[in-house]
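Exercise: predict the fold of this chain.
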Amino acid sequence: MIIREPILAGAWYPDQAAKTQEFLLNIDSNKENSDKNPNKTAFSRVVIAPHAGWYYSGRIAGISVSNLDRNADTVVIIGGHLSAGSPFLFADEDAVRTPFGLMHIDNELMAHIGNKLDARSDKFDDNTVEILVPMAHYFFPTSRLLWSRFPANSSSYEAGKTLVKTARELGRNLVVIGSADLTHYGNNYGFSPKGRGKAALDWVKNTNDAAFINAVIQNDPEKALRCAKEDQSSCSAGAVLGAMGCAEELGCFKAQLLEYGTSADVKHDEAPDSFVSYASILFL
């Protein structure tokens, strides 16, 4: 058996089962409490979740993953950090190691969809998928995993639809996580069009990120891609477009913002020099 070993465990997220479970159980308990609310959110089959270290974005990512329908054969995580001209990437190991043991890869689905997309093997170190695998394994302990990364171009939207069609042909019941952070702002990221401090933070929240989020909620993949490229409002637009394509093919036409925040919020810094923003979005 070929096992994909983690590179971020113990740094970006816990490397022990007990600590990982404690973190995620608290998020799931919050969801169970909200289930008593008559206006509760229905379970989704497609979500968008961030991929920073859990200290910064773990709660928002956990909200996304915990709102997925637990009746799934395979959990698809679509990561990003790929340019427009990159190929589709899929992990082709047998399993991925998590704090809970081994989460097996759906190699049959991987092979079928990989052939259709002329994909390559993902042998690179990258956080966009790994950071969400322990959450997927916790909430879906018996499901298999499809580890993928999609390029930042319009073909990723069609690839999402192709993925769902392929899974349907194989009799797979899927849930999908599109992994993407939003604006990376400040000197650390070489992007400071509005200077520094509170005014810059407000602009990112209310203008730059808002435009990208609204494009996703309006089911407009071309606008979302344009915002990501022109406004630098997402580092992984391919993941978002892939998830949007999956949602359309699954008949999930209504998108909803569940949670939004920034690393500055976590640090209680009202006038940050550099920060990253995150969103939890689900499709119903």
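Check your answer against the key: The chain has ten helices and twelve strands.
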